[in-house]
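TODO from last week: model GDP-mannose 4,6-dehydratase.
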Amino acid sequence: MPKKVALITGVTGQDGAYLSEFLLNKGYEVHGIKRRASQFNTDRIDHLYQDPHEEDVNFILHYGDLTDSTNLTRIIKQVQPDEIYNLAAMSHVHVSFEMAEYTADTDGMGALRILEAVRLLGLTNKTRVYQASTSELYGKVQEVPQTETTPFYPRSPYAVAKMYAYWITVNYREAYNLFACNGILFNHESPIRGETFVTRKITRATSKIALGLQEKIYLGNLDAKRDWGHAKDYVRVMWMILQADEAEDWVIATGKTTSVRDFVKMCFSHIGISLEFKGNGVSEKGYVKACDNNNYNLEIGKEVVCVDEKYYRPTEVDLLIGDATKAKEKLGWEPKYDLKNLVDDMMSSDLKLMKKEEYLKAGGYTIKNYFE
Ligand code: NDP
Ligand code: GDR
């Protein structure tokens, strides 16, 4: 059997890294598109790197960008993929309000550029396309839990761009019989989640506060509720979606929702510290209520969480909770991680990282050394 060939856009991101590992383990030849950057941006996939001078190389990187259709067309022509996973995106909802046009170009038009390249290259019968759609499409709450039939009401430039990508994927499926699917994935996190998404921001800060490297964390809306799963569970289902008999759209979620405030409490509780919150809105604060861990010397009553309204969004998505019944019944997908396991995984990893930082700081190694 010849090896299956996959092309992943956004290979340097959280999902791109886990998906690459997953597909390589399945025996795929994996091609990834990475952006040129002034510094190495491949931390998440460095462990998968294979020297191109060796024989039988199965992990191959190409420079590219979703805003450049000639580049995308050339890579797809060269790679002749059986499966394309379009994961690349300007994926930060808050930042999309600052970079609305770029977000539309990358997240919306980028999907069209991929689909159109597949069509123009005559690959519609060969290549299957996965589009990284999102629970942000639901936006303003219409119904809960959200399913494949819940109406969309996007609440950010990011979500509006992703809505175009969603429908153009459906349209290419219907118009050209292309095997193109949307995975409507709810939030999924991991130890390699980007540091400015709220879960990772919290696990990093909790670890730093516990080790005395940081005083407190500033957050935005503590009332927002999200359905958080583990990225490892979610990349597995991306692959399952493209192995299905029919091209369809799928909701992927855990079915449980948790507020940002409770997520903070869970992270502190992982290290034996309980918090209490007082006040509301911008004046709400989180204090240490009890500390049952002798390794961490946090005094009772210490203020560790504050609200800064600069993290509020012009329009917010208040409540996401997904119903993945269709994927469970038709694809046989089941998540292996629950929220507690996710918190444990992220906290253990960030505690290790921050201990390394503490060690380097104690030894006098800081970024300032470069400029002295
Ligand atoms: P990340 O932000 O971690 O990764 C995004 C990837 O896209 C990075 O590799 C980034 O490159 C790349 N990228 C950004 N802009 C461009 C561009 N113009 N051209 C080419 N590549 C680009 O996102 P995730 O891994 O978390 O998410 C993967 C996809 O799934 C995204 O499309 C996201 O919108 C979507 N999604 C994510 C969910 C989640 O909870 N994680 C939930 C639902 C959908 P670089 O490393 O150089 O920045
Ligand atoms: P989200 O993730 O917007 O759901 O998009 P994020 O972690 O950024 O925000 C989740 C919720 O937390 C609230 N929040 C904060 N968010 C951030 N980033 N920083 C803060 O300090 C903070 N304080 C409170 C937010 O207001 C929000 O309600 C993610 C991305 O991965 C998208 O690409 C993906 O499509 C969706 O998940 C599903």
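Done. The CA atoms of residues 232 and 304 lie 30 Å apart.
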